[in-house]
Amino acid sequence: APFTESRRACGKRSGDPRNPYAYVPTRADVVGLADWFEKLRASARPGTMDAAAVIGSGYWPLPWYLRSFATTGYFTKADAGWEGFPVVIAMPDAMETVSAKLAATHVSLPRGLRDGVPIMVFIENELWRQWTENH
To answer: Exposure of 92 by Cβ count < 10 A (0-12 exposed, 13-18 middle, 19+ buried)?
Structure first.
């Protein structure tokens, strides 16, 4: 049956993450992130939450959800240049290095990008303090 693989890919197993042709939806963690960032920005001092950094690879569709930031930097490696950002998102391949570098300056919040793709959102300590005081 020449169409057996097509039927499996498009029918019964169309949403199975093991299917290489499946659309694997973005997790609700990330879908709600843009709204949460707006609320976080509203509780912060003006101008303190204008930039975000994404460290690592495989970050799509994060650019769509981070478009409200005036500046968003994308860094493929966790070497340097992003430490001063108030919001940092680490992809799995950079999570350990970023966590170690930001342990003293940022609060870490685990999220999921897609099934099996964890990310870590880091919020600068002062922004987090302002958020928790208001909520």
So the answer is: middle
